[in-house]
Structure formats: structure tokens, C-alpha cells
């Protein structure tokens, strides 16, 4: 089969196009999916560039996202701090049709249109990274014509949306829902979403609106009109010199919640904009993982800070029903042929889009 294969940490030379890659065979309890489309996400970039290594302290820029980082120790090559096994087919956001099943899987599932839940959670402590492998990271994913996955992670979906539209959801949707759940928004509260134009940010906007929350997005000026259409009540330019003041002015005072995918220099201004007892949740640090933090803000403002990565069991099954009911809208920015994944990732890193970019075999 045709596949884009990652052969090591580094630049685009490590993503190799192959037309003779072995077609996978579903093991017991697995299904074989003919891939219709697969979305891009930051995990793909972070893994290829070795950004997860603890010695990396910078964010993923357009340049470093292409070239990768000069890392001496790649033993922490994945999100969970484990080394990555090469070769690896990446791609977590897979949509397609079941073409074959392994032993123990109902053969009537053949022909089902499915969307993948990328979290392969085990029984027991699902918060243990060793017990929470990620599809396209700890095992092969969807940047190929065919892929296999545990049958319970291939969710049947009944939707008029195209494969490319549905492929904008899996990683962004489960991540955004976990991010929102950590912050526990209540109807009538005000939430700030950083990186609002990205896949996670634009999805978090929709999830917050479903909960009756007022949403203020932060993004570049060129994207404001699109974000207002996507559900933001207001949008602030990310280049504001005094971001804290801009947030307070827009909100009419301090805000209840910040959902952050950016980190870096944006961290303290958004923390400072929180009210007494405010909540902050983060699922990413694309502008930089290392921040200066005045602990007095945490202590004397009774703040609650949460990280958001591993998605609770059952999340994707619940979210699929929202997609089927039309309560969540895809934010498809662009589609590329899988063979042009290098170009697709360049577009992804340029950050000129709103929503997500996908590739199709």
C-alpha cells in the first residue's frame, strides 16, 4: 500500500513516501480500515521534531517545525515521555470504512463508516501513560491507504459530512473536550480561548457555546471575522501589547476561565486576567513550554490550574453522537493528497488557517 512513513526525528526528510509498504492485517479484536481522510495535529509535528525531549525549551516555530530540534537525548520522544519506535506511520485523525475484521470481531461490521478514537486506553489506571497508548504515536496511524485499530476504537458514524470534514474532529475534539472538562465551565461564565483559530481552539469554542458560556478568542487580526462566525462573542488580537488589559476591557472585568493551547509569553497575562477563584486549563504550549510564574497569583487568588491530555473513557462515543446530531460543525481549512504531506504540514505550521488541515489517500 501507499504510506507516509516516519523513519526518525528531524526534518521532512524523515517523512518518506512509500508505495510498497506492507498492507496491515487486523489482529484478533481489530478492524482493517480503508482510510478516507486523516487530519493533521500538533502531536505529529512535536513527535517528528523531537519537541517532547526535556532539553527543548522553545516553542514550535514555523522554522523549527520544519527542521526539527537538535536533541542529544531522544529517549523521551513521545508525549508520554517514552522513546518512539521507528519506522512509524503517524496520523491520529482517521476516518474511513471497515474492510476486514480480525478474530472475535463481528463480520457484519465490514462496510461500516467509522471515525477513530485515538486513545487506546487499557483497563485499570487509564491515567497511566503506559496504559494509554496513542494511535499514530505508540502504534501506526492513518497516514496510509489502510490502517488497523482495536475494534472498540472504530466508532460507527452516520453523517452527511465528507470524510475530509469528519477527519477534522478526532484529536481536536477529544482534546478540546478534555480541556473544557478540566475547567468545568458553567452557564453565563466568560472563558478566554488562546490559539482560537487552531483545530483545538476552534473546537473548544463550539463546546463552550454548547455549555452556555461566553467566549473570547485570541488570534491574529486576520482571523477575527472567521472566529466570530465560528462562535466567539469577541476576539482579541494576539499581538496586543497589554493582553491582560485587553482581556479585562473586552470582558468588562476579570474572566472566569482560560483555556490555553499557546503557553510561552502569553501565560502570565492570561493568568493575571483571571478572577478570584478562576480556572486555567492547558493542553499545549506551542509558543514555549517554559514560563515564569509568580506563585503568589496562584495562592492569593485561589486559582485552579489543570493540565489536559489523556481523555476519559467513553468521551469519543459521546462526542460522535453530537456530530451526528449536527451540534458540532467541522472547521475544514484545506485538504491535500497524502503524498503531499510535506506541503500540508508546511501549511499547518504557517498558521494562516482557521480549523484543521487534512490529507486524503
UniProtKB/TrEMBL annotation:
InterPro entries, per this entry?
ADH-like_C, ADH-like_N, ER, GroES-like_sf, NAD(P)-bd_dom_sf, Zinc-ADH_QOR/CCCR
Tell me which domain of life the UniProt entry assigns to the organism this sequence originates from. Bacteria
For this protein, the record's SUPFAM superfamilies field holds: GroES-like (SSF50129), NAD(P)-binding Rossmann-fold domains (SSF51735)
Domain called Enoyl reductase (ER): residue spans: 10-359
Keyword match NADP: yes
Q: Which UniProt keywords apply?
A: NADP
Task: Supply the CDD domains for this chain.
Answer: MDR9 (cd08274)
GO molecular function annotation: oxidoreductase activity
Q: Does the keyword Acetylation apply?
A: no
Q: Give the protein's recorded name.
A: Alcohol dehydrogenase
Give the organism the record lists.
Gemmobacter lutimaris
Amino acid at each position: 500500500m501507499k504510506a507516509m512513513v516516519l523513519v526518525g526525528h528531524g526534518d521532512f526528510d524523515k517523512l518518506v513516501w512509500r508505495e510498497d509498504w506492507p498492507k496491515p492485517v487486523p489482529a484478533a479484536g481489530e478492524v482493517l480500515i480503508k482510510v478516507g481522510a486523516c487530519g493533521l495535529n500538533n502531536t505529529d509535528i512535536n513527535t517528528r521534531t523531537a519537541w517532547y525531549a526535556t532539553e527543548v525549551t522553545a516553542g514550535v516555530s514555523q522554522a523549527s517545525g520544519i527542521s526539527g530540534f537538535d536533541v542529544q537525548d531522544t529517549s523521551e520522544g513521545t508525549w508520554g515521555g517514552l522513546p518512539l519506535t521507528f519506522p512509524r506511520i503517524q496520523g491520529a485523525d482517521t476516518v474511513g470504512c471497515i474492510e476486514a475484521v480480525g478474530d472475535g470481531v463481528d463480520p457484519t461490521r465490514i462496510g461500516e463508516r467509522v471515525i477513530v478514537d485515538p486513545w487506546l486506553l487499557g483497563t485499570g489506571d487509564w491515567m497511566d501513560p503506559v496504559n494509554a497508548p496513542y494511535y499514530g504515536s505508540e502504534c501506526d496511524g492513518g497516514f496510509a491507504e489502510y490502517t488497523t485499530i482495536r475494534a472498540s476504537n472504530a466508532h460507527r458514524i452516520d453523517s452527511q459530512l465528507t470524510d475530509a470534514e469528519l477527519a477534522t474532529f478526532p484529536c481536536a475534539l477529544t482534546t478540546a473536550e478534555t480541556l473544557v472538562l478540566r475547567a468545568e465551565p458553567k452557564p453565563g461564565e466568560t472563558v478566554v480561548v488562546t490559539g482560537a483559530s487552531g483545530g483545538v481552539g476552534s473546537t473548544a469554542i463550539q463546546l463552550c457555546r454548547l455549555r452556555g458560556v461566553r467566549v473570547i478568542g485570541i488570534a491574529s487580526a486576520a482571523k477575527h471575522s472567521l472566529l466570530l462566525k465560528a462562535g466567539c462573542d469577541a476576539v482579541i488580537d494576539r499581538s496586543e501589547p497589554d493582553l491582560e488589559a485587553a482581556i479585562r476591557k473586552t470582558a468588562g472585568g476579570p474572566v472566569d476561565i482560560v483555556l490555553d493551547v499557546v503557553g510561552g509569553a502569553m501565560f502570565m497575562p492570561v493568568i493575571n486576567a483571571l478572577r478570584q477563584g478562576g480556572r486555567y486549563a492547558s493542553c499545549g504550549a506551542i509558543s514555549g513550554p517554559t514560563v515564569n510564574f509568580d506563585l503568589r497569583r496562584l495562592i492569593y487568588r485561589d486559582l485552579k490550574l489543570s493540565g489536559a491530555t489523556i481523555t476519559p473513557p467513553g468521551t469519543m462515543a459521546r462526542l460522535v453522537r453530537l456530530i451526528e446530531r449536527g451540534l458540532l460543525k467541522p472547521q475544514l481549512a484545506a485538504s491535500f493528497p497524502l503524498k503531499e504531506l510535506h506541503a500540508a504540514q508546511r501549511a499547518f505550521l504557517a498558521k494562516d488557517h482557521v480549523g484543521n488541515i487534512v490529507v486524503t489517500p
